[in-house]
Design goal:
globular; 454 residues; mainly alpha
Length: 454
């Protein structure tokens, strides 16, 4: 095997920019895209190092896929590499949602848009199913060799899908089970970060730029002074930005209220956007009246159908809130709404950068240490079940757009389910790319809508 090459900053910049436009499918789909591009095709990072970083991101509040991009960007090119990766992961989605929000407010629900969304939702469901398969293949060993990991995955699925157990509790129980297994049954976890399939997959490729045994770069080694400096910088940025809003419009002003509310939301987003959406709904719709309940649902549909993390639905909330509250006056509705969307995005994602840039060196120092990786391996197994429960949610949403009930269980939307099967067939059998599948499914949905049968 030849020695792994280095990745230039500009090469990474081009990839992160591309990723921002193709990161469809929610966190599961986005992580699958990064895995295919960075682990399998470009060989920038090995399977084990990728999953080790993902394990840490799954522990944090906030969008794990965006945090994973920050982590890998930081590992490759220091602090600025992480900042660029994280910003470009979010920026295209922000710009697209600002444009769609403006169209939504000015033109309402247009038929061709409904047709596109009708086709996109089944594709997203298929993408999540595909992610369950890929993540399970990389994480879980055979049931006979590692029954505990399978038990954690199945238990997390049942807890979320049937009993609506809070996601943080699922993570805590999985970490506890992994930690106990690391002490009493370590053989089940030795290959936990990737399993035998992952090891075989890595051996079939040339060495990665950041390989299993690549020494931790100097900039990624833990230093107390650097940790304190990053935390202090993050706190200063938050205080300065919040302070400007308070001085400008007062503590009770719309922008300051949004900044404080979405800071709290950012610290509660364990398990991704769906875990925090009830909190956002309660605050944005019921408490502050920034938008209506049906508008919140429409925003979620837009968030599902655009690239970037699903939590970017907060930009839609901010835009509609800024428009309705006329934060810059009646003569500057678009500018004020755009400013509100940017404020909301800033306060939602600032903690994610601090978590990665401050905690990354500590995580790198634990690579290969079973006492630390065992709880994380338990969490990774739980994530398989979590993503499976998300797949079930999407499938039910596709099959019963108006909601499932005992009365309508025998009358699902068969066309939507057929689209799920077609999209899954394209992903599993023909190995088609995410963007192609989504575009093709959207086109079929539009054609079906245009035929007047939806």
């Amino acid at each position: 095997m030849t020695a792994a090459r280095e990745v230039s900053f500009w090469e990474a910049l081009r990839f992160w920019c591309k990723l921002g436009f193709i990161s469809f499918g929610g966190p599961a789909g986005q992580i699958a895209v990064m895995h295919r591009e960075l682990v399998e095709q470009r060989r920038w990072i090995s399977e084990r190092r990728f999953l080790h970083a993902l394990n840490y991101c799954m522990l944090l509040p906030g969008p794990e896929a965006q945090q994973l991009a920050v982590y890998i960007g930081w590992l490759l090119h220091r602090t600025w590499g992480g900042i660029v990766a994280g910003v470009l992961f979010v920026l295209p989605s922000l710009l697209i949602l600002i444009g769609l929000s403006w169209v939504y407010l000015n033109y309402g629900q247009v038929g061709w848009v409904a047709g596109l969304l009708y086709g996109i939702k089944p594709a997203v469901a298929a993408l999540v199913l595909h992610a369950v398969h890929r993540l399970g293949a990389k994480t879980l060993r055979s049931p006979r060799r590692a029954p505990l990991l399978w038990g954690i995955a199945i238990g997390s699925f049942v807890a979320l899908a049937l009993f609506a157990v809070p996601f943080p509790l699922v993570v805590l129980c999985a970490a506890l089970a992994g930690g106990l297994a690391g002490r009493w049954a370590p053989s089940q976890l030795v290959q936990g970060e990737g399993g035998h399939r992952a090891q075989a997959a890595d051996s079939d490729h040339s060495p990665a730029v950041i390989d299993d045994h690549t020494p931790t770069p100097v900039h990624a080694r833990f230093k107390r002074s650097r940790f304190l400096r990053v935390v202090a910088t993050g706190a200063a940025l938050w205080i300065a930005s919040m302070g400007m809003l308070v001085v400008w419009q007062g503590w009770s002003g719309t922008l300051a209220t949004m900044g404080w509310f979405f800071t709290k939301a950012a610290l509660l987003t364990f398990g991704g956007a769906y875990a925090v959406l009830p909190y956002v709904y309660q605050g944005a719709v019921l408490e502050h009246g920034w938008l209506l309940g049906p508008q919140m649902i429409d925003g979620l549909a837009l968030g599902e159908s655009t690239p970037g993390p699903l939590i970017m639905v907060v930009a839609f909330v901010g835009f509609l809130g800024g428009w309705g509250q006329q934060v810059l006056g009646a003569d500057a509705l678009f500018v004020g709404a755009t400013l509100a969307a940017m404020v909301v995005t800033w306060f939602t994602f600032l903690p994610s950068f601090v978590f990665i840039l401050a905690g990354g060196p500590f995580v790198e120092s634990t690579h290969g240490k079973l006492h630390f990786t065992a709880p994380l391996t338990g969490i990774t197994a739980a994530v398989v079940g979590v993503v499976a429960s998300l797949a079930l949610f999407f499938l039910l949403h596709v099959a019963y757009p108006s909601g499932w009930s005992v009365a309508n269980w025998s009358s699902p939307d068969w066309v939507g389910l057929v689209l799920v099967v077609i999209a899954a067939w394209a992903l599993f059998v023909f190995k088609q790319g995410v963007v192609k599948v989504i575009l093709a499914s959207a086109l079929i949905g539009w054609m079906w809508q245009s035929a007047g049968v939806v």
